[in-house]
Amino acid sequence: MSKKGSGKRTWFIPDAFFPEKDNGDYVSHEAVCVLNTGDVDAEIKITLYFENREPEGGFTAVCGARRTNHIRMDKIVGEGGKKVPRGVPYAMLIESSAPIVCQYSRCDTTQSELSFMGLLAYGG
Predict the structure, then answer these.
(1) For the chain, how many structural domains are there in total?
(2) Is 1 within the bounds of a domain?
(3) 8 Å CB contact between 95 and 48
(4) Which CATH number is 80's domain given?
(5) pTM for the predicted model, two decimal places
(6) Do residues 101 and 44 touch, judged by C-beta distance below 8 A?
(7) 58: domain range?
(8) Strand pairing category for 115-120 and 90-108
(9) Residue 37 counted as domain residue
């Protein structure tokens, strides 16, 4: 049995990291994987938090109704053309206009043995 519009409007990802280098043709990347089972589009705001500097907001995306969106953090561009910094640990606050479910994944290609990590974000 499915519940339309299931999920939360606020999600936290405390351990994010976009590696500085790539190995070969496959690019290191991260993604915020969003599932929207509801009947309205979800407008998503992403704020980045760092250890030694102020948060950076202005990153936005949309996940259509009854759709999924894999928001690639290496491709998203925020206000003023800012991008997610490489090689800097950070955390994310995900805010949505509609209930969604968020998963975080990281593909690290810095070594010949590629690594992949996926986890369910914390829904507040």
Answers:
(1) 1
(2) no
(3) no
(4) 2.60.290.11
(5) 0.86
(6) no
(7) 8-123
(8) antiparallel
(9) yes
Is the CB of residue 46 less than 8 Å from the CB of residue 59?
yes
pLDDT tens, 21-73? 766 666 666 889 999 999 999 999 999 999 999 999 999 999 999 999 999 88
Mean pLDDT of the chain: 86
What is the amino acid identity at position 28?
Answer: S
Do the domain assignments include residue 28? yes
Q: Is 3 inside a domain boundary?
A: no
- Structure letter (DSSP) for residue 121: P
Tokens standing for residue 112: 């010949």
CB atoms closer than 10 angstroms to residue 71:
20
Q: Helices H, strands E: what count in the chain? A: 0, 8
Query: What does the DSSP assignment read for 18-38?
Result: --S--BTTBPPEEEEEEEE-S
